[in-house]
Amino acid sequence: MKKVILIKYGELTTKKGNRNYFVQLLYERIKKKLESFPISIQKDLSRMYITLEEKDVRSVLEKLQTVFGIHEYYVATLVDSTKESIIEALKKMIQEAHFTTFKVEVKRSDKTFPIPSMEFAKELGSIVLKNTNSKKVDVHNPDLLIHVEIRENESFLYTDAYKGLGGYPVGVQGTGLLMLSGGIDSPVAGYLSQKRGIKIEAVYFEALPHTSLEAREKVISLAKVLAKYQNEIKLHIVPFTQLQEEIYRNGKKEYTITIMRRMMYRIMEQLCRKQHAKCFINGESIGQVASQTLSSMEVINAVTNLPVIRPVACLDKLEIMNLARNIGTYDISILPYEDCCTVFVPKHPIIHPSLEECSFIEKNLNFEKILEETIENTFVLKIKEEQDEKFKDIL
Predict the structure, then answer these.
(1) Residue 206: how many CB atoms within 10 A of its CB?
(2) Is 5 helix (H, G, I), strand (E, B) or coil?
């Protein structure tokens, strides 16, 4: 008996006329993710079917847990559409399962099958009772829900569902650049952006020698975690030292972070244009720090016309930390290596900056030429996905 993984799309089925595009991209993502396995994949507009060897089932399930766009999936036994084959597979299934109560559901897609669905479900239920001890039928909340789908040539038998990540296939919304700082919030923002179909590239603002190479390695480790959802991530390393020192020397101390963020946004916009990205993304959470008040966001945002996506804007710190733990970035993020946003923080950063004051300060800075050189000297690392064998539900 062959094994098949049945994939259900969930949110993708709401796309009506565009559904085929979403399903095709999901198919391509799954095919790429499973390219090392001897499998075959068939798809239609409601489901996808992966036929595979039984020894590979566990490994394939782990890979599917890193693919956005899947609502849920089942490991099914594939048999001939005959009464005898279905009963044989059912007997084997219940021998391997652990349950006290059960329910059998039959879906007869092939109407030429001689037994009506309800009648066959009752017959199969009787077989379960005869071949087990002390088991009971529970039609409302069974320990084991046995699905039997009868099709023209082959039928599927499967039990409990695995929960997928949901969302959209990565790339369906185009590309966005993630400001990846090394803290707790920005990797979570990257993950949530991927879940909504954005293929991300990461941007790290580096301030050597004020920050360390260990801080860069920390960011690379975070990018590896995020890369497993899209196989590879480009990491843009921005040499931010000269620009940051210019701001610190010639600006107002309480405005240091505000001006610094405005410079970052200018750089992000130019990098987005070069990479044909549609937006940039960061881990700002409203009110969490001085640069993340609504007043600060308004002033900082004034330097760009591109969309700025803030996936964790309305989450509190505990919620963000829990998500970071779930996706495996938290322990990396708390490593004690400072990024450029923390080494020049003034004692009393302004929380309600003035746009006019920012413009006045920036007139006294020699930033245009430095900004141009910073972008020219930005370099890119290609980060491959991390080989993480953990298998768990996320979100």
Answers:
(1) 20
(2) strand
